[in-house]
Design brief:
248 residues; mainly alpha; two-stranded antiparallel sheet; 10 helices; 54% helix; binds zinc ion
């Protein structure tokens, strides 16, 4: 007879003999990822804001546009290259699968600072985003509009990236951590926790920050099959459930 599944708690770990969990990284790696991310993002933010020159409201429209664009890019990169191996992007897939195997359903919680290296993206990702891709967009914006718009866009990217890493860390905190009482955090924690469950990870809850793109693409899921004994409940503009209710 099958044993009754125990409630998931911070201390339930997969039995060591069956664990596929990658080894815990050395402590220096967590310091390296965290320090590099903080250094580049904060100094980038300060520098770009320092050189902004009396921006007009119309120029600052690039901030919400940039946030929205970043939300869809974050979603797209996570949904496809990070969960499906595409030629030329296998490094992203491997990196993310290590994250999912490290923080499996029953090993979801951060146990110590060493685990941060498995959450905060390695410096190479930040380098590609901030020094590879963003300068191209910023140069285009400076050419079409002006330097202020380009700088505000750059600041948005640095800020978004930093916030994404921070929220991802918070989403792996223990369930009863007091920080999760901050407004909205419990929702984001649950959103990401569901993404880490086995039947869900490749099909839903791909946003790390506010799940705008998840909602638009109908991949925002609020319950796991284990919660309901039914198929996952989708929510969103293009979700199967929304399409079904439209027909009724
Ligand atoms: Zn995660
Ligand atoms: Zn994932």
């Amino acid at each position: 007879m099958d044993a009754i599944k125990p409630e998931i708690s911070a201390h339930n770990r997969r039995p060591a003999g069956r664990s596929l969990r990658p080894p815990t990284p050395p402590l220096w790696q967590s310091y390296y990822h965290v320090a590099y991310t903080l250094l580049i993002c904060l100094s980038g933010l300060l520098l770009t804001l320092r050189f902004l020159s009396a921006p007009r409201p119309a120029e600052l429209l690039i901030v919400p546009i940039g946030i929205l664009g970043a939300n869809f890019i974050e979603y797209g990169v996570h949904r496809w290259p990070m969960h499906h191996g595409y030629r030329g992007l296998h490094a992203l897939f491997r990196l993310h699968m290590v994250h999912h195997h490290y923080f499996y359903e029953d090993t979801y919680w951060i146990q110590g600072f060493r685990d941060f290296a498995m959450i905060v993206f390695p410096p190479v990702v930040l380098n590609v985003v901030c020094f590879g891709v963003t300068p191209l967009f910023a140069a285009g914006l400076a050419w079409v509009f002006n330097l202020n718009v380009a700088l505000a866009f750059y600041a948005t990217v640095f800020g978004y990236y930093l916030l994404m890493q921070l929220i991802h860390v918070l989403c792996h905190l223990d369930t009863d951590n007091k920080i999760l009482a901050l407004p909205g955090l419990r929702f984001l924690w649950r959103h990401h926790n569901i993404h880490h469950t086995k039947p869900i990870m490749a099909i839903a809850n791909f946003n790390f920050i506010i799940p705008i793109a998840d909602f638009v693409f109908g991949t925002a899921v609020t319950r796991t099959p284990a919660d309901t004994n039914r198929a996952p409940m989708h929510q969103g503009l293009m979700s199967p459930s929304a399409a079904g209710s439209a027909k009724n």
